[in-house]
Amino acid sequence: MIHFDHLAFETENIQGTVEFYRARFPDTQVLYQDATWALIQCGGVKIAFVTPSEHPAHIAFRVDSRSELTDEAAKTGAAIKRHRDGSESFYIVDPAGNALEIIYYSPPM
User: Is 85 helix (H, G, I), strand (E, B) or coil?
Assistant: First the structure.
């Protein structure tokens, strides 16, 4: 089953963008942040901020199992990539040119 996971916007200023959201929306939680990528939760929605050289702006959908991820990737011929947080994903593009990420998070050990 596929679930909405997050939206991702490009920025050259990760720190400044995170600070903007935290100042405007006090309930914002920073889930992860480094120099090229941040993930916040605001109003019950996860938003990623990415540098253009690392990831495209995109909408991400989460699958429940690794087998679902590999099945979805096989449908498109996309290569699965492992990320620094242990998640695995691939990108596809819809007919309008929007990037979609299909992502799977391994259960914590």
Answer: coil
